Amino acid sequence: MEFLSDIASLINSTLRISTPLVFAAMAGIFAERSGVIDFSLEGKMLMAAFVAAVGSYFLGNPWLGLLLAIIACVSLSMLHGFASVTYKGDQVVSCVAINILIIGLTTALAAAWFGQAGLTPTLTEDQRFLEVNLPFAESLRDVPIIGTIYSDILSGHYIFVYLAYATVPLVFWVVFKTSFGLRLRAVGENPSAVDTAGINVFAMRYKALAINGVLIAFAGAHLSTAVNANFFREMSAGRGYLALAAMIFGKWHPKTALIACLLFGFTDALQIRLQGVELPAIGEIPVQLIQALPYVLTVVLLAGFVGKAIAPNAIGQPYIKER
Amino acid sequence: MATVDKSRVPWWVSNLIVPLVNLTLALFVSGLFIFIAGENPFEAVSLIIYGSFGYIEGFAYTLYYTTNFIFTGLAFAVAFHCRLFNIGGEGQAYIGGLGVFLVAINFSFLPVPIVWLLAVGGAVVFGAAWAFIPAYLQATRGSHVVITTIMFNFIAASLMVFLLVDVIRDTTQMGPHTVALPEEQWFPSFEDFAALFGIKIRYSPLNISFLLAIAASFFVWFLVWKTRWGYEMRAVGHNTQAAIYAGISPYKNIIIAMCISGGLAGLLGVNEILGVHHKIVAGFPAGYGFTGIAVALMGRNHPIGIFPAAFLFGILYQGGSEVTFDMPNITRYMFVAVQGVIILFSGALENLFRPQIENFFVNRLNLKAKA
Questions:
Q1: How far apart are CA B331 and CA B48, in angstroms?
Q2: R_g over Cα of chain B
Q3: Which residues pair with B177 in a beta bridge?
Q4: What is the per-residue DSSP string for A135-172?
Q5: Residue pLDDT tens, chain A, 323 long
């Protein structure tokens, strides 16, 4: 039975750890399907974490913190759009600028306002999101199998975990089943054809970036107002890049990107479980090497051992309207 | 946006005036940040100038930072000419430092100048090796080099901490660092030079690596603009399809560009290990690799531009530490944010005012020609 509960707790943490990755990957799908590279997921996630924590601390309500985080992330997306869509600047440079700017700004402002080295004050229970217990979770706990799945794996997560997995079918529907989604994909594949059809390429890209900003804000708020009770320096720890890798590995498709996110989440959950554990034949693996596991996995997945990833055709190219 | 006939724009407009306008905008926004953090931006500027020029040791610190930024700026620039975003300078510098240390400690029986040469070689080889895998994956599998090099930064950090804690740690000491190199291997420092002329100054980390940085700048200039290989690399960066048509292999050039880039980043390890710490300390690249991106973009990826850009960042770093000393609300992270703003304005938003400025000068010159 201990083995079973071990597996249950591993799956439970996989779902939790994958959550910010899922939001970020879905955000990335919108931007990149419209033809705009988004390496700035990392910076936006960090910004959302900072703004959500600070907002919630001052306003006393985590939902208001989340709202501010959404505003901040949409603004950053607009900045990215301003530089790379309107002014046709280099999209990767714009992303690198945003990432470095946010790493510096969040830490500097946390230090200036709260006097601690890049930390925001710990949030009280009313200022953060708490675990949600699904109905009947307690009474079903003792039922074999179903009880384990329902009470130990599915119940007791933060609201963001449920939202994240609900977002995936929604994104699928929007991107593949609506006329908005068709235009979105067309703008990323062949912008001049879309322009000929009378659709504003720039407006489409800005809309995609706005949705991207909203989604990534949830990832950051999850980190600082749910899983943790404060913001700390560089707390996104490369998750934006992991999500991007998951999206590429998932071929810019919500369902496969979700699987890749879960794989990353599982690796991370496993990594935490393996710390300090004696493995048969190998012995204890040094903690620093285990911690590098998700990053190594990213490189391996990106190397595309499951086939080459084909990006949207017009990705990274600013659209220049003919006159 | 108005279009301008590029050939009629004088070089000093696009290469001096436009970058200066962008820099001014970036510094203005940075001033706003300092204001938001609750300090006076003008006082901060005067502190920066005093800290970086006001006394001889301060100026030496400025040049020491400049040295690091030249290495990482050149590293980013070389890869960028092949349209590769090597943002893994941080990790390549870290591993480059490992190369310096391992060579110096294992060949300590050789005469010191030979050890120095070998150690510089070690830095280049280790840094290049760390850039090779992302380069190979980009060339053969199309794995985007931005993600892989960032991942290699994380992996390098984990690997180095592992080595420093479990393998090459100085077990007689508490901190995660190696034993010190023998003293005769330490690079001559600025105060040693000053002492030759009978001038006594206090400690600063400036050392002869500064000259190595100047040499590296000449090397990059020669390589990129004066050799056939540099031409091929720029051709691949400019138009890969045309390059293939001309018989140039993008595969080969991507790998060479990234390896040279990684090697240059590795040289930061020479300055830090032989010149300053004399041992490997955890986290010695301290963000210099990322600053290199801003330096290269500001310097328009040319050694002649990179030198003043690196010097400017040297002023910001050294002057910045003076600011953090005097202004409790400002931490060194504020200057990381400043870097982001500079990358934004001199990189991504470089077209913001370019057409207007170029138009302005072209029109003025036209008027003069008519008159």
A1: 13
A2: 22
A3: B281
A4: TTHHHHTTSTTHHIIIIIIISSB-HHHHHHHHHHHHHH
A5: 567 778 888 888 899 999 999 999 999 999 999 999 998 999 999 999 999 999 999 998 999 999 999 999 999 999 999 998 888 888 888 998 999 999 999 998 898 888 777 788 888 888 888 888 777 777 777 777 777 777 777 877 888 999 999 999 999 999 999 999 999 999 999 988 888 888 899 999 999 999 999 999 999 999 999 988 889 988 988 899 889 888 988 889 999 999 999 998 998 888 888 777 777 766 777 888 888 888 898 888 888 755 556 778 888 788 887 66
- DSSP letter at A278? E
pTM over 0.90: no
> Which two structure tokens, joined as six digits, stand for B270?
């020479």
**Residue B337 touches chain A, beta carbons under 8 Å:** yes
| The length of chain A, given as a count of residues | 323
Which chain A residues touch B150 with a CB distance below 8 Å? 238, 241
Which residues of chain A have a CB within 8 Å of the CB of B32? none
CA distance B21 to B26: 9
Residues of B in contact with A112 (CB under 8 A): 36-38, 329-331, 334
Per the structure, the complete domain to which residue B13 belongs is given by: 1-39+327-371
- Å between A86 CA and nearest CA of chain B: 10
Q: Any bridge partners for residue A119, and if so which?
A: A232
Domain membership of residue A232 (yes or no) is: yes
Distance from B130 to chain A by nearest Cα, in Å? 13
Closest C-alpha among B306, B327, B326, B298 to residue B264: B306
- Contact between B125 and B99 under an 8 Å Cβ cutoff? The reply is yes
Nearest Cβ partner of A308 from B37, B142, B337?
Answer: B142
Is A258 within a domain?
yes
Q: Are B300 and B19 in contact (CB under 8 A)?
A: yes
Domain that holds residue A166: 2-131+143-302
HSE, side-chain direction, 13 A CA sphere, residue A276:
2
Report the distance separating Cα B210 and Cα B275, nearest Å.
10
The alpha-carbon gap from A110 to the nearest alpha carbon of chain B, in Å, equals 9
Handedness of CA B36, B37, B38, B40 (dihedral sign): negative
Question: A104–B352: do the CB atoms touch at under 8 Å?
Answer: no
- Do residues B121 and B170 share a domain? yes
Determine which of B333, B334, B353, B354 to mutate to test the interface with A (most A C-beta atoms within 10 Å): B333
B165/A288 CB distance under 8 A: yes
- Please name the residue that has the structure tokens 């919630």: A56
| CATH number for the domain that contains residue B275 | 1.10.3470
Minimal C-alpha gap between B290 and chain A (Å): 8
CA of B341: which chain A residue's CA is closest? A101
Residue B60 in any domain: the answer is: no
Closest approach of chain B CAs to the CA of A140, in angstroms? 43
Contacts with A, B 12-31, CB within 8 Å: none
